[in-house]
TrEMBL record:
GO biological process, one term: tRNA modification
Function as written in the Swiss-Prot or TrEMBL entry: Adds a GMP to the 5'-end of tRNA(His) after transcription and RNase P cleavage.
One Pfam family recorded for the sequence: Thg1
EC number: 2.7.7.79
Gene3D superfamilies: 3.30.70.3000
Keywords: GTP-binding, Magnesium, Metal-binding, Nucleotide-binding, Nucleotidyltransferase, Transferase, tRNA processing
Name of this protein: tRNA(His) guanylyltransferase
InterPro entries linked to this entry: Thg1_C_dom (IPR025845), tRNAHis_GuaTrfase_cat (IPR024956), tRNAHis_GuaTrfase_Thg1 (IPR007537), tRNAHis_GuaTrfase_Thg1_sf (IPR038469)
Single GO MF annotation: tRNA guanylyltransferase activity
Residues noted as binding GTP in the record, renumbered to the chain: D29, G30, H31, S32, F33, H34, S75, D76
Length: 270
């Protein structure tokens, strides 16, 4: 260990290990994406290119960290659930938050041209990140229900709002005024009677957000071949690394609030 007379300053760093045996939810959110989406010509209310780019960046994080089993994305945010027994970076909070936020952000920028080939980045986007600990499965379920309920409320509002502006010819001020005091039923009614839109028929990606689940895949049976170790292993099913169960990631746009999801993917709350 380096032993200069200056090394004592290291001792000023505070330990920040997160409590053991608690679920960790890591959430990041685009910084000032109201402006970022304006300056990069996002289609309103939902720019599918931007949502797919968010999904891609999230998938890169899931691929890099096998202790994340579930992720949920909407708008400019993504939430990731880490196993409660994870020992990632010795559970150091700032290490986890900063590393994951930066990996997501660099992937967002790296893959930007794939999703926005005609829109050059005008300035580098950034994301904030945080971790919240939850003691039991109940809070974890309620957390994801909370985010998905938020997706629903925002998307219903934005869908009617932009229909009033883009198809109804209202100004944004008028559209806000039209919607003031309306409840969910009124918004469905405006959409249906004025614009012939059935809200429930809108793409589930917009209504439900994006859900990544990690699923254990049964290991492919070992294949005996004449291949020597020096030959490329093309066509031969890869064996998982020792002690690691092979997994795949599935992208869904499904309900996270009812019991069905949690019964089907019960292993996510282990
Ligand atoms: P990590 O980057 O793995 O999250 P870290 O930032 O503590 O952890 P490094 O970035 O590898 O570790 O190293 C920071 C520097 O601090 C290193 O050059 C190392 O020599 C020095 N250092 C780390 N721990 C101590 C210590 N206990 N006493 C003195 N110097 C240390
Ligand atoms: P903050 O820095 O506090 O998060 P913000 O401007 O990012 O501020 P948010 O509440 O995070 O505010 O909202 C993000 C905004 O980004 C949305 O309100 C919306 O205007 C825009 N936005 C994000 N994703 C999309 C998308 N896929 N399509 C259209 N607009 C989007
Ligand atoms: Mg915000
Ligand atoms: Mg934001
Ligand atoms: Mg947001
Ligand atoms: Mg370091
Ligand atoms: Mg270093």
């Amino acid at each position: 260990m380096a032993g200069s007379k200056f090394a004592y300053v290291k001792k000023f760093e505070l330990p920040d290990a997160l409590l053991p045996n608690m679920f960790m939810v890591f959430r990041l959110d685009g910084h000032s994406f109201h402006r970022f989406s304006d300056e990069h010509e996002f289609v309103k209310p939902n720019d599918v290119r931007a949502l797919r780019l968010m999904d891609h960046a999230a998938k890169s994080v899931l691929e890099a960290y096998s202790d994340i089993g579930l992720a949920f994305g909407e708008s400019d945010e993504y939430s990731f659930l880490l196993r409660k027994s994870t020992t990632l970076y010795n559970r150091r909070e700032s290490k986890i938050v900063s590393t994951l936020t930066s990996l997501f952000t660099s992937n967002y920028v790296f893959h930007w041209p794939t999703y926005f080939p005609d829109v050059p980045l005008r300035y580098p986007p950034s994301f904030d990140g945080r971790i919240v600990l939850y003691p039991s499965q109940r809070e974890v379920r309620d957390y994801f229900a909370w985010r998905q309920a938020d997706t629903h409320i925002n998307n219903l509002y934005n869908t009617v709002f932009w229909a009033l502006v883009q198809q109804g010819g209202q100004t944004t001020t008028e559209a806000h005024a039209t919607l003031r005091g309306t409840v969910s039923k009124d918004k469905h009614e405006i959409l249906f009677s004025h614009f012939g839109m059935n809200y429930d028929k809108i793409d589930p990606r917009y209504r439900k957000g994006s859900v990544f689940v990690r699923i254990e895949t049964p290991e492919a049976p070992e294949v005996t071949t004449e291949a020597t170790s020096s030959q490329p292993s093309e066509g031969i099913p890869k064996k998982a690394k020792k002690g690691k169960v092979p997994t795949t990631l599935e992208l869904l746009h499904c309900d996270l609030i009812r019991d069905d999801f949690w019964e089907k993917y019960a292993h996510l709350l282990d």
